[in-house]
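Re: Re: token formats

Sure, here are both.
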Amino acid sequence: MLGFPDLPLRMTAGVFHKVATGKYGERETVPLRVIARLPELIDEPMALFDSASVQGALVVLTSARVASGVVIAAVLSNARDANTTVNLVTSVYAKERIDWFAEQIRAGRLRYADEKKGSDILEVSGHALDCGAEPGNRNPSTRTVLRAEDLRNFRTAQRAVRLFSLVD
């Protein structure tokens, strides 16, 4: 997954319960069909943002939609689950405020954008997508936003690494 170490993806039972019940009735529930597709949705995001509140976490803008908005997932990399290091899904819900995406871009948190998948959401930001996004750099004027072609190149490189590790 782009932006994440090559580790298993996990969600605790407590997080699953909150997602499936809409945080105990406070939010719209995320349907089980969407929850079941989370690994695929996270692996093929519309956009990735650095988390504003948790260092090392990313917010994944997925292509899934529910009545109240676009489904996003917060994922913490290198988390511990029992005795295993994993990428841990810490939250999943529909983002109702469309201006939130523009706020994240203006704040320099955008790391990846697939303009074809997310054109209706990400166009809200206007020319901000051209600002760039080098991971770890909060100054949007010097960042390079990764695009779908970068994701393809990343996956090709990952496959090559796996093939060579099998040969050794």
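Second one below.
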Amino acid sequence: MEQHLGTATCHMTARVSTRAGLISPLPAEFLYQAGDPYAVQLSLGPSTGSARVWTFARDLLAEGVERPAGAGDVRVAPRCRHHPYSLRIVLTNRDGTALIELPAEKVAGFLRQAFSLVPPGTESRHLNIDGTITALMGRSR
């Protein structure tokens, strides 16, 4: 796990299962940036090439460590009896559904880093509203 200037990252190996029954290990990386305080990114696949990036709520990931959470394209569930050391994330898009199993302790460590950068309830203090509006309007500062 790394933490640099408002950024936390965590590299790990994910086990990915699809409805077709394929199970394969893939490199995975979580990224949290204080400038986007409500979101985490999960990158699946090689760092060089066509990695898939999913962005979802930091609070969804944190809740999913404790109990099943999410109702849309991203759902997170804690350890189960059969895999007590893994966190399960179900990702759904128009191409299908995948079950991602990640080491629960690494995810918990990543969340501790993210919450140390931006404690819960202080996210709004870290937003750059003026910069976002400028970017949306296509103007440079």
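The domain at 2-137 is CATH 2.30.31.20 (Transcriptional Co-activator pc4; Chain A). The chain has one domain: 2-137.
- S.
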